[in-house]
Specification:
Blueprint lengths: L5 E2 H14 L5 H13 L3 H6 L4 E2 L1 H15 L4 H5 L1 E4 L2 E4 L12 H13 L9 E5 L5 H9 L4 E6 L2 H13 L6 E5 L13 E6 L14 H4 L15 H9 L4 E10 L5 H11 L2 E8 L5 E8 L1
Parallel strand pairs: 5-6, 5-8, 6-7, 8-9
Antiparallel strand pairs: 1-2, 3-4, 9-11, 10-11
Helix pairs in contact: 1-2, 2-4, 6-7, 10-11
């Protein structure tokens, strides 16, 4: 990038080649996303302004974003945002980057809420267990305006960012955030929920070193590593959840496809659940285990 003056089209072309040489996937898309983000425009505008000159200040700032990506920092951390459920959420190294497959939890929770038949006068309550960036709590608070929404996380830094996202989407006053390790957040009161959703850490400890560097070296390990077999936290949640579910209350937990069968066995061992089943994602793999309090 030692050229005296640059235009947007030339800069994107050179950057794409550079990113490919560095082994970055989707190099052209990455180049466009980074430049659009830095210039404060959308990608369509880049194409409409291919011949527009880039100032030295813009070039310098863009170079720094490219350097960060080449160091294998996730694109979402570099841009500071990730889209989820057609909304834009702030993300950084304090939280796990939201994955598209987690939208299945939102869909399933909304379906459960539609079926929910609680006694009149009983508040509808939903808990996002291990909220991270707050995506599930925020999306469900927006979709279910008549429900109480609670969210917990062991990380105060994650809760701070979740609060920012809640305010950003106008539901800050409707979500009650509590710090604590899953259900330990409820130290002073026992609350019953009609729906509990959770995307807990479920990467198997023995597989952690094989993760892509973007994940292994940048995303918070505490939000990913699920112990041996990846089932440590999943089992804990399944065994503890009955104490926090109302009669016929539903727990929805995301996990790796290969973990769902064992998770259902654990749920059966508790003898607390009536209905136990798993739900496939859009790729056809089992992704969510759904259990109903007997």
């Amino acid at each position: 990038m030692a050229q005296a003056s640059w235009h947007i089209g030339d800069l994107l072309k050179v950057t794409t080649t550079y990113l490919k040489e560095k082994g970055i996937e989707s190099a052209r898309l990455t180049a466009e996303v980074l430049l659009a983000r830095f210039l404060g425009v959308d990608r369509v505008t880049l194409y409409l302004e291919f011949e527009k000159p880039v100032t030295q200040r813009e070039l310098s700032g863009y170079r720094e974003l490219v350097r960060r990506r080449v160091r294998r920092e996730p694109l979402q951390y570099v841009t500071g945002v990730q889209e989820f459920w057609s909304m834009e959420f702030q993300v950084d190294a304090r939280v796990l980057i939201p994955r598209p497959e987690t939208e299945l939890l939102v869909e399933q929770a909304l379906a459960c809420a539609k079926e929910n038949k609680t006694d009149e006068g009983h508040p509808h309550r939903l808990l996002d267990l291990g909220t991270g960036s707050g995506i599930l709590a925020v999306c469900l608070a927006k979709e279910l305006p008549g429900w109480e929404v609670w969210a917990t996380d062991i990380s105060p830094d994650a809760l701070e960012l979740a609060g920012v996202n809640a305010e950003r989407h106008g539901v800050g006053s409707r979500i009650r955030f509590l710090q604590g390790d899953f259900f330990k957040a409820f130290k002073k009161e026992r609350v019953l929920f009609d729906i509990i959703v959770s995307n807990p850490p479920y990467v198997a400890e023995e597989e952690y070193a094989t993760l892509p560097p973007e994940i292994r070296d940048h995303e918070p390990r505490i939000a990913l590593a699920g112990g041996r077999g990846g089932l440590v936290f999943i089992e804990h949640i399944l065994r503890e959840a009955p104490d926090f579910l109302s009669p016929r209350g539903r727990l929805l937990a995301e996990m790796a496809p290969g973990q769902t069968e064992r998770a259902m066995e654990i749920a059966g061992e508790t003898r607390c659940y009536g209905e136990i089943h798993r739900v496939r994602d859009y790729s056809g793999q089992h992704r969510v285990v759904s259990v109903t309090r007997a």
